[in-house]
Amino acid sequence: MAQTVSEAIDPKKGQQDQVGASTPQLPPQVVMALSYHSVLSRGISISGVCFDDRDFQLRVADQPDGCGSRWMDAKSAAITYQGLAAINGGFFTPEGKPLGLLIEDGIKRGKLHSSALGSGIFISSSTGSAIIRKEDYLSSGLTTKADHLLQSGPMLVEHGKPTDGLSNEKNRTRSFLAWDGRHHWMIGHAAPCSLKSLADALAHIPIQGFKVTTALNLDGGRSSDLWVGAEVENGDKTHRSFLNKAVRNYLVLIER
Question: What is the pTM of this model?
Fold first, then answer.
């Protein structure tokens, strides 16, 4: 059973709501270690880092002066924050400005974007993380609780199923963020595929103990850049094209 978004961001709320509840509780999910996985799902090669957000968290690493002004790759961004892994973030304009809302250490940049490239929002606080639809963000009560936030899109998986209407064209390298609706997450890189085929692959990803309920597409193609440090089990990996281009922001995995 997935948590509500409010419970994910504020676990105490979920604990209070369950007091006296008559609904039977499911047994605890398998706790996943911080680990790198490379699997084949629905014919799509997927590589990524799985982690538990009670022990680790993703922070936004932004470059206010534009793409490449601080870091040329995910590894460099991770090293700045003693990160264990890092991946490229959301889309950006030709001028290097964020295409959508972004919050880094409580500081807002950009603004909510209305296209499919901004249909989802990743939000992280000191107590938890969640992916929420853009339409629900303003009414969620979370607008003042985000330490880090990144708008991107489209949504790939919702409620455990591929999102309707995704394109089955334009096979390209993909970057994504996936969540099980509770505490387990994955930042990942996919071999060239369409958005529709990636969504189907994530909804059926063969990683024991990890059922993707929600997934968000990040910037892809030449922007795709996943770095995994040696501290991660099976890590010390880099997924980055030789023709990779500088990006505006990254998501860096750090210890809580």
Answer: 0.88
- Say how many domains are in the chain: 1
First to last CA, the chain: 24
Contacts 24+ apart (CB under 8 A), 110-113: 110/151, 112/137, 112/151, 113/151
- What is the C-alpha to C-alpha distance for residues 88 and 74, in angstroms, rounded to an integer? 6
User: Which structural domain range is residue 50 located in?
Assistant: 33-255
**H or E element in which residue 134 lies:** helix 134-137
pLDDT 10s digits, 223-232: 999 999 999 9
d(CA 155, CA 38): 22
Each residue's pLDDT tens digit, 172-213: 999 999 999 999 999 999 999 999 999 999 999 999 999 999
Which runs of E-coded beta strand occur in 12-106? 35-41, 44-52, 56-62, 85-88, 102-104
Q: What is the pLDDT of residue 25?
A: 39
- The total of other beta-carbon atoms located within 10 Å of residue 193's CB is 23
- CA atoms within 13 Å, Cβ hemisphere of 203: 16
Report if residue 233 sits inside a domain.
yes
CA 218, distance to chain mean position in Å, is 8
